[in-house]
Amino acid sequence: MSGKSTKQQRAAQKAATGPPVKRFPWAVSMLLPMAIGAVLTAGGFLLFAGTPDPGRGSSVRVSSGSNAPDAGCRTVAQLLALSDEELERVDVLELNIAVAREIPGCEHLDYQRYKRIVDEWTDDVRRLESVSKDNFSKTPHEWNNDINFFRLGLLATYLTRDRGVRYHEKYSADQKAGKSSKYIEPGALLIHDLIDTLRGTCANMPVLHVIIGRRLGLPVSLASVGPHYVCRYDDGKVHYNIEATYEGPGFVSDSDQDYVKDIGLPQKAATTGSDFRSLTAREMLGVFVGSRARYYWDTDQREAAYRDYIFSQALYPNHRANFRESVRAIVWQGEQLFEPYETGHPATMAQWLVSTYLRLPQGPPDTTTVHHAPPTARRNSMYDEEINAITRASVLPRPPTDLQPVTVAPAVPQPNRAPIYGAQQQPRMPQPGVPQPYQPPTYQPPMPGQPRR
Known about the structure:
By secondary structure, this protein is mainly alpha-helical. It contains 17 helices and five strands. The strands form two sheets. A three-stranded antiparallel beta sheet has the order 3-4-5. A two-stranded parallel sheet has the order 1-2.
């Protein structure tokens, strides 16, 4: 038997034993390819029609998560153009690096490099969680019967014990000596230098906790506690404050009341929305911009500091600590914009503040006590005239002689009316007993070695 006939027999047997073959009518077999072609053509047309036309100024919106194609390349302005929902999905590490990369000399910072390092640290914590679960199950009461509280403590212990993250020795020495630290390196306040050197401050150490905590699926964010920052866990039922500057052994989780007692915060700190709450992504950007402003101020870049302080307030309007820090930059800007005799200059503003806020409390007259007027010293009118002449000669600076300024007496605030201040011809110099210009307090983070509460 020939090979060809053998193949034909095998094909016949296979056809006989195999599943029945479905045959389409002739019309269907002819129309099917045409229908498929029409569907593909229509789909391609719709896809093309749905693509924004570059000539019309449209843009394609991409995912805003950390895996977005342009993650790590976006500027602060591009990040702020995202919606609140999109911005919440952006990696906090990218937000911080984007702020740092706009500082001259930091343009080279590579987000992808820092992301790889942080991802490796996150994997280490995951491995520790898998082998440490028995520790929680044996003594759950020591962890508030909350596995997530145990995980927060494990993260804090890993960073200090296994990675060696520490508070920067230079700034710790300043605190021990009672000095006010000057941050002349942006990395002391932003995240990149902490990852590179494992030395940080309260401005970037809690940020690292938030970055890794979110990778672990924990509902954590940055929180302001006065002029200090903590990593705050809040799942809607319970909340914990993790003190990131503590160096162990163990870790510290202070309550809101503990911080109120230690720092002396008033009730307004919470009721105004400034402190003791998890910040949004947009507010965290405001914190990072405020940290950059502090670096600019400490390095005598006054104009950049003023600009960033105002920018930070726009992103996080109720931040009390940032407002205090920005006062000095606003005062500096007032000196640049106004002459000393103009309304708006710090000298005239100081007069208005004194006249408005340093009034003696008013109340009903005390009829139970007889007040005797103090004796009046007799003075020679000639001496009065000499004293007035000396006073007039010592008041500086004076307005230009070719101008005719209008002297307006300081207005007295009336009830239910906003205070009014007017131009002063010759502002007085600060005199003894008069409060000096406001100096915002400099907060020093907790010293290493504080006992666990």
